Fold these 3 entries.
Entry 1:
Amino acid sequence: MSFCCGASMIGVVGTLKHQSVKVHHVPLLCCPVCNNIVVHPAVKEEFDLVVEYAQEDRVKEITLRETITPEMLVEWKEICVSFQGDDAENVIREQIDHSLDLLSTAKILNDIDWQDDLKTRLKVLSARLKEFEQHKESSK
Ligand SMILES: [Zn+2]
C-alpha cells in the first residue's frame, strides 16, 4: 500500500511526462490531498524501460499499454483503496470512509501526527465532495 498524507493514494490511469517523454495510459497513484503523483509499483520497471527506449529512439510520446483490460484494473486496484473510474464522487466518499476508519485507529494508537494528517485529509476531501454536490445541485 502506498501512503501519502495519512492514508492510501488513489489509483488512476493517466498521462505522465518523465524525462521529456510523454507516456500515456500509465497506472498512477495520486494523493488527493497534496496531488503527489507516482507511477504504480506494478508497472514501475516497465515504465522506466519504455522511457529509456523512447529516449534512445528519440520518441517524444508513447503509450505504455495499448489496451487496458478490466483484469489489469483489478490488479492495480489491489494496492490502493480506490481506483478512479468515471465516478470521481464515489471515490471521494470511499476515501472519506477509509480516512474515518484510519482516524479511529490513529486515536487508539495515540498517534497525534497521523491524526493531524487524517484530519487535514478529511477537510480537503469533504470540501471536494461539497463541490460535487453543489455542482449537481446547479445542473438540476
Ligand atoms: Zn500527499
Entry 2:
Amino acid sequence: MDFPIIDLIDEEQATAWLLKHFHPEGLHCPHCGANVEEARLFGWTRKSHLRIYRCLSCEGVYNLYSGTVFEQKQLTPPEAVLLLLRGVCQGVPSAKLAREIGLSRQTVMSLGRVLQSNAEALQPSSALPDKGAETDEMFQNAGEKGDRH
Ligand SMILES: [Zn+2]
C-alpha cells in the first residue's frame, strides 16, 4: 500500500540524523573549516527549512546540505532522510518513493541517480560482495573453458 509517510518523520529528528550522517564530526564552515559555533544564524532556507549560517571568520554562508548531494535540492530534512533510507538502502522504486514523499518522480529519479553513484561511499559493505562474486564467476568460466581445450 502506498501512502505518504513523510508526515511520520519528525523534522528535528531528521535534521539530527542528516547531521550525524553527513557531518559526523559536527557541522563546519565548508569555506574555512571553522566550527558552526563560530557562525551566527543568518536566516532560514525557504523550501527546505534549514538554518542558514554565516561564518564569523570568513563571512561564508552555508547550511546542513552544503557540500552534500542535497545541496541546492530544496528538500526538507524528512524528504532527504526518506530518499536515503528508502531509495538507496531499501531500493524502493522511484515512482513509489515519489508518492510516499510527495515529490515529483523526476526529482526522485534525478536524485536517485546521484545517490546511487554515491551509494558505494555510503554503504561500502553492501555494494562490494556482489561485484566480487560476479568477477569470480567470470574467471571460473574462463578457466573451465580454457581447461577443456
Ligand atoms: Zn568560514
Entry 3:
Amino acid sequence: MFNLLDLLSPHLRIAVIFGGTRHKEGAVITPTHNPRSDKTYEAVAADIAAALGRCGFAHVELMPEDMTLGERLRRFNANFAWLNSGGTQGYASSAHGPSLLELFGIPYVGHNPLNAAVLDNKHMFKYALQGLGLPTPRFVVVHFGESIDGPGVREHFQAVFGDGSGPFVVKPVSGRASLHVHLVEQRKDLSAAVAAVHAATENSVLVEAFLSGREYCIGVCGPLVIRGGVPTRQDRPFCFSALERTFEAGERIFTSMDVKPISSARFRLLDDGADAEIARGLVAIGEAIYTAFNLETAVRLDIRAGTNGNLSVLEANPKPDLKFPKDGQASLITAGLDRQAMSYDDLILTLLANRLDFLVTRRPSGVPNILRLLNG
Ligand SMILES: Nc1ncnc2c1ncn2[C@@H]1O[C@H](COP(=O)(O)OP(=O)(O)O)[C@@H](O)[C@H]1O
Ligand SMILES: [Mg+2]
C-alpha cells in the first residue's frame, strides 16, 4: 500500500461525516431553510466507513454535520475526517463542513470551503469556467427577488441570448439529481419557470441554453492511483468512469435518480475505440478543471454536447455519489472502475491517499497533527 497510508493506518482516527437533520433536537439552534434539497447521504457515509475498515483503518466513526460535530470529534479523539455531506441548512451549505473542520484543525477528505462553495453554486462555477475559456452553456442568473423581465436582468438576457428563442433550461444554482430542472421551449414561459424554482429554493436561478446532444460524465481526482492496493503516481489528474448517460425516447432532461435509480440501464461506459475522440475531449476538460481550480479531491463532471457535437460543462459535482455498488444499483463515478482494474476499496484508498499526499506536501502547516504522527 502507499507508504503514507501504511504509516498512518494504525493511528488515524477518521470521522466520516454525513449531512445533519436540522429538525432533530439539538442539531441546530434554529432550524431554517435548505435551498438545496434535504439529503443526509448517511448510507453512503456508512459505505465509505466500511471500506476504510476493510482497508485496515480500525478507528472510524460516523457522525452528522450539525452543532454537535465539534464535541463528537473531540470525544472520538478524531485526527482526520471524511466529508460526505452536502450541508444541513442555510446558504453555501456545502462549505459549512469544511469550514468547521478548518476552524477545528481537523484535516479531511473534501474540498476546501472556497471550492466547495463555488462548485456547489453553478453560476459561480460557470463564471469561473468562462474566465478560464472552458465551454459551458450560455446563461443568465436571476437572483431570488428578481424577475427575468426586471431591470438589469432583462438587459443581461438580451446581451446573452439576443432575440434568440429557446429551448432553455431553468434550474437551481445549487441542486441535485435534476430536481427543479425545467425545460422551457419559449421565452414567454421563462418567467413562470423561474418563479417556480425561486419558490422551491429561495435561491438564485440559472437560465441556460438547452443543449440537445448526448450527455456524458467523467470522474476526476488527484494523480495517485491505487490498483489492487498498489499505488502509481501519474503526472496529471486521474480521469475515470467516462460514460454516456442513456436517455429514453422522449427524455430530454436526465430523469432524477430519485425517480429512476441509477442502474446499468441508465448509462453506457465509453468504448476505447469508437468513443476515443469523445473520451479525449472529456479527459481534457477534466484535467483542465482539476488543475485550474487546484481541486483537492474528486469531482464528477456532467457534460453535454450541443447540436454540433461540441462539449459543454453543465456542472462539477463536488461530492460524487460513492455508494457501494450492489443489488443492481450503481453510481456513475464507480461504474468504470473495473476497466481501471480498481475495486471500490481501491477508489476509497485512492481518494484518501491523494488527500493525505496533497496535505502533507502542499499544506504542511495545516496538518501538524499528521506530521507528528509521521515523525512520531
Ligand atoms: N443547459 C442544459 N442543456 C441540456 N440539458 C441540461 C442543461 N442543464 C441541465 N440539463 C439536464 O438536467 C440534468 C440536471 O442538470 P445539472 O446541471 O447536472 O444539475 P443537477 O444534476 O445538480 O440537478 C442534466 O443531467 C441534464 O440532463
Ligand atoms: Mg448533474
